[in-house]
Design goal:
alpha+beta; Immunoglobulin-like; C8orf32 fold; seven-stranded antiparallel β-sheet; five-stranded antiparallel β-sheet; 14 strands; disordered C terminus; Papain-like_cys_pep_sf; Transglutaminase-like; Bac_transglu_N; Transglutaminase family protein
């Protein structure tokens, strides 16, 4: 369950919103049930699929309100990682051969994922960092796992140290950030050497510390990166946790960058001067019983 609650110090007369909160149906991931609820009830509501195949929802609340809550619940079945892709010739071969430009028409669909963003994210610091990983002839999967481990080792996870607008070069300089920053650093490195990379968002089922009970509501939305391989396969990896994406990850959406798939984005009409956002996420195996939410809300998602 993913719950976002906005509260305002004055009446809001109208709220428009668009959200990416419904997990994707994939070969290794099946959505058994999914629902997005808005409180107050919206006057207009629609769902659709964007250019990347993600499910999105649009709503418009026209009744006056001082709080808005968006709650997404879903039941998802996720398979373990497909070892066949990791042992494929494309994964074990030289990384240079995984460039979309190196395989002709087969790589055409992935070309947009090679292009840099605007403003550019591929800086001299990114090229230097990537150069230590993508050495000539190195096996693709070896280079990707090394990049994952290096980012995990070289960057400190610090909640609140960055914002959505923080640039990759700033993260490279400070050597700290959160999951979305580490995913974007990885993507910039991959693109700097001509590889196709995408930004993926979703959830990660986390384990409690040894000897302690699971704390429901303590999870947050998560982000990671994926790299394209010939054969139209994508290998997803999680620099924040130094691992390949597995059955504990639930994929919600993907795009070229965070801006393509924010969990929730909108516009309000109000005289309010202040607002507050509280976000909580519960990710648990079927059969677990959610307990009370934490007394201190989780602020914005990572």
């Amino acid at each position: 369950m993913h719950r976002t609650r906005y509260t305002y110090d004055d009446v809001v007369s109208s709220s428009y919103g668009r959200c990416y909160l419904t997990p994707r149906d994939l070969p290794g991931q099946r959505v058994l049930d999914a629902e997005v609820r808005i409180d107050p009830e919206p006057d207009d509501w629609s769902t659709g699929v964007d250019v990347y195949g993600n499910s999105d929802s649009y709503f418009h609340v026209r009744s006056t309100h001082e709080a808005l809550t968006v709650t997404a619940t879903s039941v998802v079945e996720v398979d373990p990682t497909d070892a066949g892709v990791l042992l494929s010739p494309a994964a074990l071969g030289p990384w240079e051969q995984a460039r979309p430009a190196a395989v002709g028409i087969e790589g055409a669909a992935a070309t947009e994922y090679v292009l840099d963003l605007y403003p550019p994210e591929i800086t001299a610091a990114v090229r230097e960092y990537a150069g230590d990983v993508f050495t000539p002839g190195r096996p693709m999967i070896e280079a990707v796992t090394d990049l994952t481990a290096r980012i995990h080792r070289d960057f400190d996870y610090k909640s609140g140290s960055t914002a959505i607008s923080t640039r990759v070069d700033t993260v490279m300089e400070r050597r700290m950030g959160v999951c979305q920053d580490f995913a974007r650093v990885a993507i910039a490195c991959l693109r700097s050497v001509g590889l196709a990379a995408r930004y993926e968002s979703g959830y990660l089922a986390t384990d409690p510390p040894p000897g302690r009970e699971r704390i429901f509501g303590a999870d947050a939305s998560h982000a990671w990166a994926a790299v394209w391989l010939p054969g139209d396969h994508w290998v997803a990896f999680d620099p924040t946790n130094d691992k390949l994406v597995d059955e504990r990850h639930v994929t919600v959406a993907w795009g070229r960058d965070y801006d393509d798939i924010p969990p929730l984005r909108g516009v309000i009409y109000t005289e309010s001067k202040k607002s507050r956002i509280d976000v909580s996420v519960d990710v648990s195996p079927i059969g677990d019983t959610p307990g009370p939410e934490p007394e201190t809300p989780i602020g914005v998602t990572d």
